[in-house]
């Protein structure tokens, strides 16, 4: 019985492997054609959107950097005040 199941599995895999490989190769070829051909309107629109998003991220990070610098200044000032108070 186990021998028959192994034999059946072998034949299933033997026939399915080429089918899966052909589908995979076909998908890769279609993807490559789509990338090479490209859709100029979509790619231009997506490029503009990506550029806008990158600008927004940059502006947000710049703002965050200023906030962190302000917080560092406040913390250093407090530590300095505590150091002066502890010395007295």
Explained architecture:
The chain is an all-alpha fold. The chain folds into two domains: 1-38; 39-88. 95% of the residues lie in helices and 0% in strands. The chain is built from two helices and no strands. It has helices spanning 2-37, 40-87. The protein starts with a helix and ends with a helix. The model has no long low-confidence stretch (mean pLDDT 82).
Keywords:
mainly alpha, 2 domains, 2 helices
Distance between the termini: 91 Å
Q: SSE string, helix = H, strand = E?
A: HH
**Segments where pLDDT lies below 50 for 5+ residues?**
none
Report the strand count: 0
Number of domains: 2
| Mean pLDDT score | 82
Largest β sheet strand count, sense and barrel closure: none
Structural class: mainly alpha
What's the total helix number?
2
Strand proportion, as a percent range, falls in under 5%
User: Quick one: overall form?
Assistant: elongated
What gyration radius follows from the Cα positions, in whole Å? 31 Å
Which percent range fits the helix content? over 70%
What is the fold's blueprint, element by element?
Elements: H1 2-37, H2 40-87
Please sum up the structure shown.
With about 90 residues, this protein is an all-alpha fold. The protein has helices spanning about 1-35, 40-85.
């Amino acid at each position: 019985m186990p021998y028959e199941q192994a034999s059946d599995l072998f034949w299933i895999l033997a026939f399915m492997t080429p089918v899966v490989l052909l589908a995979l190769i076909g998908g890769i070829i279609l993807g490559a054609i789509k990338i090479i051909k490209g859709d100029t309107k979509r790619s231009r629109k997506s490029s503009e959107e990506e550029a806008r998003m990158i600008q927004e991220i940059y502006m947000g990070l710049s703002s965050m950097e200023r906030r962190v610098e302000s917080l560092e200044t406040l913390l250093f000032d407090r530590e300095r005040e505590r150091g002066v108070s502890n010395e007295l």
